[in-house]
Each structure stands twice: as structure tokens, then as C-alpha cells.
Design brief:
hpI Integrase, Chain A, mainly alpha, DNA polymerase, domain 1, 3 domains, 62% helix, 18 helices
Length: 392
């Protein structure tokens, strides 16, 4: 009876609260039914084995529950419940799969990568998975890290990437390229920069000119913007930031209320890909779009990040959500384009206004001048189209 009151009673109440939270946040009825069934099985499992409260939401308990129950997709509802309780400060941490500790140099790189790039924890986890696979490959072939060659890297990628999609393969190459450059440039472990030799789809793509919106398409986009809902106000403000300041989706997602000075009409962008903070003037039309979103669309929250999710608890929006919302707005305007087209359009506008390639590099936050020169290439093509009636 004591167990019922101390553990089973708590778990019944938390499951009840979580299911009510799902209803209030508009989860689909089919999802609600599936979660309710799985969590009731989970409740019975905990009751039958008299598992103490501090061991209920652990990876081992979840793994054993899945194995014994035989339920498909049992992990998602239980993990969801644990995240809900963690956000409510009712458990110290959500259910997380134990991370395999890698050799020291790998762990040091991941710490460097997290701090220097301020990456999302999912991207950090993907990088860890890539390095873990590389470490297994090196151990299997008895290759010491200082002796790794490009032929080993190519062999590893050809075997490891075979089962992945093109996008995942691209991410794997990017993660590996960053690690190899770190070993060469920052630690001096490699005698040459193998990262620069790791040429795949991302580097080949640099030869392609950036895509941008023509003037009539810009008018078409802004004419289509709606202000009828909090979501449309948020999207509108993000589009103005992308178009008038050339910000990346990640930079937009990281903007805080304290970064904006309405009196000075400027915004500070502290977290850039090039680690080069900058203050940019805020056009009046962008100030208005941000102000309308804050007053009429932004959820009431103590969170200082500008753009928040609408579901409780309100959290900072992710870069992927910024890209998705902007792309959706563009499709509604019959424009087959993406969020980065706004950034590319901003660069073209700078070129047409007479800015130098070095000024544009600074404004865009590019790591390399070669990246900025791609915009000069497309601008030259645009001039030829206008002057000589050539097809762009």
C-alpha cells in the first residue's frame, strides 16, 4: 500500500496530467489514443516490478519495458512523458541514451565544436555518431589517428555512408571534415589538412551560383504575407529579417530581445558562423514587423529569445522551423524558393548598391572571401543578361 501511494499514485497522476496537456496542445486523437495505451502498459509494468520512483524514468527501465512488453513504438510516449516531467521540474532529467565515451581527442573536439559553433544538441549528437563510427573503423583496421590518410577516409565513408540518404551523407562528410581540420590546424596531430581533400557534394555545390529573388518576385512575396494570426506575424518578422539583413535561419532563431535597440534602430548579431559579432542598422519596415509580432503575436513568457514556439512550455524556435516557415510562406506566394534565397537576394542588393566584396563579406558573416565571390559571379551574369539580352 505504501508503494501505491509513493510511486504508483505519482505515476498515475503524471500520466493523467500529461494526457491532459496533450489534449490542450492539440495532439491528434490517434496519437493521444496510442500514447494512452502505451503509458497504461508502462504503468502496469512499473507496478508489477515495484520499481522505485528514481528508477522509473531511466534508459534501462525503458529498454527492459520495450523488450518485455513487445510493444512497437513504445519508446516515444514514455520519452515524451519524461520530457514533460523534466520541463515541469518533477524529475531531474529526461530519459537519455547513455553516450559512449570516445577517445580523449574526440571528446575534446566535440567540446570545441559545441563552444565555437554553438550547435544544437542534435547536431552535436550527429557529430558524435560520425566520430564514433570513424573510431570503430580505425580500431578494426588497426590504424592510429596520426597515421590516417585520405585513402582511409575515403574507404571509411564508402562503407559507412552506403546505407544513408544523400542529405545524411553530406552531414557525415561535413562532420568528418571539421574533425580532420581540427586535428591539423588546432592540434597539429595530422601533417596535412585532410579536410580540404574531402571533396563531396557540399564543395562541388560551391560552383553553382546562389539563387535569389528578382524584384517582381520580392513584391509578390511581401504582397502575399498575412498578419491574421500569431504564426503569420512571426513568419512575417522572420522574412523581413532575412530579406533586409541577410540573416541565416540559425541567426534569426538566436536573436534575443536584448539584442534589439528600437531607440537606436539597430540589432546586434552576436552568434555568427564566422564568430564575428556585428551591429546592423534595422530598417523601419523591419522594426515595425518585429514590434507587431512582439505586441500581437509573441507568447507571454519570461524567455528572452525573440521567436518562440506557440505550444506550452514556450521555447526558442529552432533554425529548421525558421527555414520551414519561410519556405511555406514562399510556396503560398507561388515562389519555388527557400529561406536562403532571401539571404542571397540581400547580397545582390548590396552589390547593386555599390558595396565592395570585402564589405559584403563582413555584412554576410562569411568565413572566406571565396564564398562571397560567388555572389559577384552571379551579379556579373545578371549584368550580361540586362546589357546583352543573354539568358541567365
Amino acid at each position: 500500500m505504501v508503494y501505491e501511494l509513493s510511486v504508483l499514485g505519482q505515476l498515475k497522476k503524471t500520466i493523467h496530467d500529461y494526457l491532459l496537456w496533450m489534449i490542450s496542445n492539440g495532439y491528434a486523437n490517434s496519437t493521444f489514443i496510442q500514447y494512452e495505451q502505451v503509458l497504461n502498459h508502462f504503468l502496469s509494468y512499473i507496478d508489477q516490478r515495484t520499481i522505485p520512483w528514481d528508477a522509473v524514468f531511466t534508459f534501462d527501465t525503458l529498454e527492459n519495458f520495450q523488450e518485455e512488453s513487445g510493444l512497437t513504438h513504445a519508446s516515444t510516449p514514455v520519452r515524451g512523458l519524461s520530457r514533460y516531467l523534466f520541463q515541469q521540474n518533477r524529475i531531474p532529467r529526461p530519459i537519455e541514451k547513455p553516450l559512449q565515451r570516445l577517445p580523449e581527442i574526440h571528446e575534446e573536439y566535440l567540446l570545441y565544436y559545441e563552444k565555437s559553433r554553438q550547435v544544437h544538441h542534435l547536431n552535436l549528437l550527429r557529430a558524435r555518431n560520425t566520430l564514433s563510427a570513424l573510431n570503430c573503423y580505425l580500431e578494426e583496421h588497426n590504424i592510429k589517428l596520426p597515421h590516417i590518410g585520405i585513402e582511409h577516409v575515403d574507404d571509411f565513408l564508402s562503407k559507412h555512408n552506403a546505407r544513408f540518404t544523400a542529405t545524411t551523407r553530406q552531414n557525415q562528410r561535413s562532420n568528418l571534415r571539421g574533425f580532420l581540420r581540427y586535428l591539423y590546424q588546432d592540434r597539429g596531430i595530422l601533417r596535412r589538412d585532410l579536410g580540404s581533400l574531402l571533396i563531396g557534394a557540399p564543395l562541388y555545390a560551391q560552383a553553382k551560383p546562389p539563387k535569389f529573388l528578382r524584384p517582381h518576385e520580392v513584391k509578390q512575396l511581401f504582397a502575399s504575407l498575412s498578419t491574421s494570426s500569431p504564426g503569420s506575424l512571426r513568419t512575417s518578422a522572420m522574412i523581413y529579417l532575412g530579406y533586409t539583413l541577410g540573416l541565416r535561419p540559425k541567426e534569426i532563431s538566436l536573436i534575443r530581445l536584448d539584442d534589439i535597440s528600437f531607440s537606436q534602430r539597430e540589432i546586434t548579431i552576436p552568434d555568427r558562423k564566422s564568430n564575428n559579432p556585428i551591429k546592423l542598422p534595422l530598417p523601419e519596415i523591419t522594426i515595425k514587423a518585429i514590434a507587431v509580432y512582439i505586441v500581437q503575436g509573441r507568447p507571454k513568457s519570461n524567455e528572452r529569445t525573440l521567436f518562440l514556439t506557440f505550444r506550452v512550455p514556450h521555447k526558442p524556435i529552432l533554425p529548421g522551423s525558421v527555414s520551414r516557415d519561410i519556405s511555406t510562406a514562399m510556396r503560398k506566394a507561388n515562389l519555388p524558393s527557400s529561406a536562403y534565397w532571401l539571404r542571397h537576394t540581400y547580397a545582390q542588393n548590396l552589390l547593386q548598391a555599390g558595396a565592395s566584396i570585402f564589405e559584403i563579406k563582413q555584412m554576410m558573416g562569411h568565413d572566406k572571401i571565396q564564398t562571397t565571390q560567388r555572389y559577384l559571379h552571379i551579379y556579373t551574369q545578371l549584368m550580361r543578361e540586362v546589357l546583352f539580352d543573354e539568358t541567365l
